[in-house]
Design a protein that fits this description.
single chain, alpha+beta, Cytidine Deaminase, domain 2, 5-stranded mixed beta sheet, 11 helices, 5 strands, 14% strand, elongated
């Protein structure tokens, strides 16, 4: 059912805000959660806020796509192509999505020690695994290998991503880290390193030596698994990091 009534015309027991207060956010549909963010409706046929939420989900799930998967990486321009969604509504939705991501990935006060490739891969999995484009990310660590944070540095195409040592180490310095692990995904699912992967790893190891910021590993994620270039190659023996 698509809502054309104003939310204020609904019985209080059916209004999204009131239901959230009484029963919690989990009791609301995705369209109702979006309606709370939108505040007001409109769009085709002067829809209510809930109706506009339903309309947004319908539009982004065209071509048999999962609406929540699309929302995860949707842009403001894509949202504003939907009738009834202007800059204010689009930015509110994007802010809520980003806040949810940050809460999900927030680290506890007792920061974990990253001393195994599998731990680093599991931390990066939400950002890198099962993505349709190559993404390059960095795990930022302190001198005791405790997690400071993670950051996606670049997003490329289905077959390649562009990451430069300058951009990577700039983020390390900006966040006050002293050690790092880098990683990227292969949308193909293969975790075999390419010649370009090996070349970039060598560049990063050389930069790590120069800056005194050890590169501990370079991981490749794909198809639910990962590979460690430190374990697969001799690069760390050729360019020791003093770690």
């Amino acid at each position: 059912m698509t809502y054309h009534l104003r939310v204020t015309d609904l019985p209080s027991s059916e209004r999204p805000r009131e239901r959230l207060m009484l029963h919690g956010a989990k009791s609301l549909s995705t369209a109702e959660l979006i309606a709370i963010l939108l505040g007001t409706g409109q769009g085709p046929g002067k829809l209510s806020a809930v109706g506009l939420g339903q309309h947004i989900l319908h539009k982004i799930s065209e071509h048999q796509r999962d609406a929540l998967t699309v929302l995860r990486d949707i842009t403001a321009s894509e949202l504003m192509q939907i009738q009834g969604v202007g800059p204010a509504k689009a930015t509110t939705i994007l802010a809520a999505i980003e806040l949810g991501k940050r809460v999900l990935h927030s680290r506890p006060s007792d920061r974990p020690i990253i001393d195994d490739p599998a731990i680093a891969a599991s931390i990066l999995s939400p950002d890198l695994m099962w993505q349709s484009q190559e993404r390059f990310a960095v795990v930022l660590l302190d001198v005791k290998n405790r997690l400071i944070g993670t950051q996606v540095i670049s997003i490329g195409t289905a077959t390649e991503t562009l990451a430069h040592p300058r951009e990577i180490f700039r983020e390390v310095i900006r966040q006050g880290a002293t050690r790092l692990i880098v990683a990227h995904n292969h949308p193909s699912g293969s975790v075999d390193p390419s010649p370009e992967d090996l070349y970039l790893t060598r560049q990063l190891l050389e930069a790590g030596q120069l800056l005194g910021m050890p590169l501990l590993d370079h991981l490749i994620l794909g198809n639910g698994t990962h590979a460690s270039l430190r374990q697969l190659t001799s690069l760390w023996h050729e360019l020791p990091q003093g770690d």
